[in-house]
Please model this.
Amino acid sequence: MKFNQSFNGIILMSICFVLNVKAQDTNYWTQQYGSNSVLMSGAVVGGSDDNTMLYYNPGALGFLDNSSISVNATAYRAENITISNAIGQKASFNSRQLGSVPLLAGGMIRVKNNNWKVGYGFMAPTSFNFKGVARKEGFFDIIDESESTGLEETVAESAISDRLNEILIAFGAARRLNENWSVGLTNLFTVRSQSYSRSLSTYVFMNDTERTLVAANLNENVDYYNVRYSAKLGVSYQKERWKAGLTFTTPAINIMGIGSVAANIQANNFKLIDDNRISAVATGRQSELKTTFKSPLSVSAGLNYFGDKSHIGISCQYYGSTDQYDIMDIASNTFVRPANTAPELGTDDFMRVRAAAKSVFNVAIGYEYLLKESLSLFLSARNDMSYFDKSLNDDRGIKTTISSWDIYHISSGITIKKNQSNLSLGLLFSTGNTDDYEQKGSLNNPNENDLIKGTTTITKASYGSLGLLLGYTLYFKKF
Model:
């Protein structure tokens, strides 16, 4: 029994209808950590006077002269993501979110040897929530004229919900070698969790006597968590007004993780085999699956200069690429029923949850001006290139990311300095867009062969965020 292109359309659409879901979930530098470090856009790899060096450059921890530093910073953000024409003209995805992100909570641990510094921190590298619904109704020429004359009434709706969070737990130590050099190592444990769901319904009413309904329904669900480990080695050099730093971060080592995947697709009265209309279901669910999530090798470098009233810093970071891999290993089981409809199609092909990353290079520059001894003004900017790998668009599988565009961040604010504390207030602005967003599922010019798969189109996507930074740093006893 030969399987024609219509059912392939159903399956492919079930995997990638509407858009190949991606947002700032494919950017490494969306978040920065700590009060001054956020206001400097992360241009502090050369060195800073607080324990954010635990993340940016553990080597610089050795130059801190405080026995204990407590840093807390939170960003309150309003975010907007728009995918234009998600399933056709004027049927777009719009997701607006308002919330807070705890950027850093951490401190230092006092040790007897003053040449050693030990610190800890809790950070949120990723906190992403996307919800979008797109609907299109109208009359289209979909069914062949021999079966249905004229335009067919069509209704299509798609909904996507994605919640992605990462918590980074860091423990690090540094040793000051002499007055100019210090080296350090931070252990980075990242806990990643994601809950993703997508639903799709498409209904076409034929213009025959029975008003035959041609319909398809899709539901996809992915839930998993993963724990991974990386080590960051840093070296710091400081002399007079200059500070310089270099770090290497290892690729991630997976520790543990569990996940589940489910996909259910129903086709009603489609031309699946030869020219006969039949109905079929593709369904599968697998749980208690081991998970893998990869982070690449990265290298960062930075230089900071401190004048009488001005401080300028520049940092850059390179992230290596990651080839395609499966977040969960899917067993090969029957997917399509009746089983003889398409025995060659299995769950291991269509329920794969895939990921990949291309290499990126980011640069940050920050400026601080001392208005008076107790008040500093900051202005900074950074690029945040997307690591989205377009090869994910070419294969079957479930892709649980949303963005593929680059983001640009601008930060500005003030720090008020007291005897043993700093209070920081800032505004955070981020923007990103692309006119080259590849999506599958447009119903602008539908026909029965691509009714479920949809036409691949190039459309626009945009991201915007406006945030408020509130940070507090408390300095305890000096050594």
Observations:
- Residues 5-475 form a domain with the Porin fold (CATH 2.40.160.60).
